From TrEMBL:
Residues 67-380 form the Dihydroxy-acid/6-phosphogluconate dehydratase N-terminal domain. Keywords: 4Fe-4S, Carbohydrate metabolism, Gluconate utilization, Iron, Iron-sulfur, Lyase, Metal-binding. It comes from Tropicimonas aquimaris. Belongs to the IlvD/Edd family. Residues 406-597 form the Dihydroxy-acid/6-phosphogluconate dehydratase C-terminal domain. Pfam families: ILV_EDD_C, ILVD_EDD_N. It catalyses: 6-phospho-D-gluconate = 2-dehydro-3-deoxy-6-phospho-D-gluconate + H2O. [4Fe-4S] cluster binds at C155, C222. Binds 1 [4Fe-4S] cluster. This is Phosphogluconate dehydratase.
Amino acid sequence: MDLNATVARVTERIRERSHDSRHAYLEQMQKAAEAGPARAHLTCGNQAHAYAAMGEDKAALAEGRAPNIGIVTAYNDMLSAHQPFERYPDLIRRAAREAGATAQVAGGVPAMCDGVTQGQTGMELSLFSRDVIAMASAVALSHNTFDSALFLGVCDKIVPGLVMAAASFSHLPAVFLPAGPMTSGLPNDEKARVRQQFATGEVGRDKLMEAEMASYHGPGTCTFYGTANTNQMLMEFMGLHLPGASFVTPNTPLREALTVAGAKRAAEITALGNEYTPAGEVLDERAFVNGMVGLMATGGSTNLILHLPAMARAAGIRLGLEDFADLSDVVPLLAKVYPNGLADVNHFHAAGGLGFMIGELLKAGLLHPDTRTVAGDGLERYTREPKLQNGELVWVEGAGETLNDKILRPAASPFQPTGGLKQLKGSLGHGVMKVSAVAPERHVIEARARVFHDQEAVKTAFKAGEFTEDTVVVVRFQGPGANGMPELHSLTPTLAVLQDRGLKVALVTDGRMSGASGKVPAAIHVTPEAASGGPIARLRDGDLVRVDAVAGTLDVLEDGFAERAPVQADLSANTHGLGRDLFETFRRNAGPATEGACAVL
């Protein structure tokens, strides 16, 4: 199948837009690669420090002929998705030795759990933790003793930060190793029902806690299709995982075999061998377009509209919201995974998963087939699935057809003909909406605004019974420059209750919503943000606002709106407590949401 004309056009537009920055990036990568294995240039003293604690690997390291793999790990057991990484370094070191290589933990990176910080002050550090992770990874790899790198990370900001680091160390091959989703627990729709019951006072905190603990119950990624699992999809579509690695559950023989295979592959693709695959060549324009196509086809998290531009900038590539919008217009929605359906990622994987989806999109001409990947050249490899046969890891033909068409459909008969994201532009600025889980009759909301400066004020108004008519709830001063752009996911039960009462409700914010949010129409990432005097700062209670995901518009329908002076808010409370004082530099230097809200690139 020929490449879809829109996919080709968007790719070429990105290539032209990025010409100068990408050219400079590739030149730097080439110079670093030509310098050869880093250890050859270290002094004996440098090397002695690096190898002092390496026991049986000391001789191989000192000899300098065997590949040395640097491990960057986001392990902690605060994140269920990252807890399995505790065992990975020993497993990787053994696998490296079997491959005639060595491996060292180069460093750890911070990894916060957005599930713990949702609705809490700590969430104001969450987005910028991505940039900190990229910087911490750079510190780890700066020892310059490595021939390739393994990145251990799964969740929301962690994978984007690690990709930014992998792109920055472009001459090193980079293999990403996931940990997999937890086994299925309480169904996600039942969890959501109990949350709404708690919001209306129908059940107490004991029932809410019981439901939450039954849903989040063991090691592995949360099973809904939020940002963490969207990250895993991207790593496969972009060729940084081994094929089929994303959604194999933790602590199973297949998961362990994939980890071993990933470590051995990292040794095979260094500059010391014949399959040199630097990260900078994997992360090209085609890979990012494939990632955006995967985002649309799966109805993935809106957070990746922030992260993908930041990841791309690290590789000298410039993405724009129009790229997402144009691809969304031609990429069909092939998956129904919660919140865009009742299934979880384990059900999705069992139905044929990413292998089936990649195969369908390749056949439809919606993916670049000729990308470089850590598994070898060509995305066709990612239509195959890993199996253990007689204790050996092999890749076999994947599902040629969907095994459950309520979860996963072929490109010829999708759930809907276009992707799950819409770009919005108008007198209120530039934003996006995830529409894949929003009922079509709610794609256009026109109502009077209620304006708030924090999410707690919305909840207080709800408890006081103040929402009695159709409403556009505006929560402003939530952008990166104001308070770090926290997710407003804790508003979802409140707004869903209003919607279930028969009101037409929409959210407009310069902040973020979680990838777990869905059925309430939400115009998010509105740029320019209120803190920089954007139009959203001119809104008043009672203004008539139209949120239109059909026409792609976001407007206030009031005469004289453009002439109003923007409201200024006292943001001093955002500058201290729980480490926020340490992040003032990030807030002051963050770019706009349309460019990834990045403070370091």
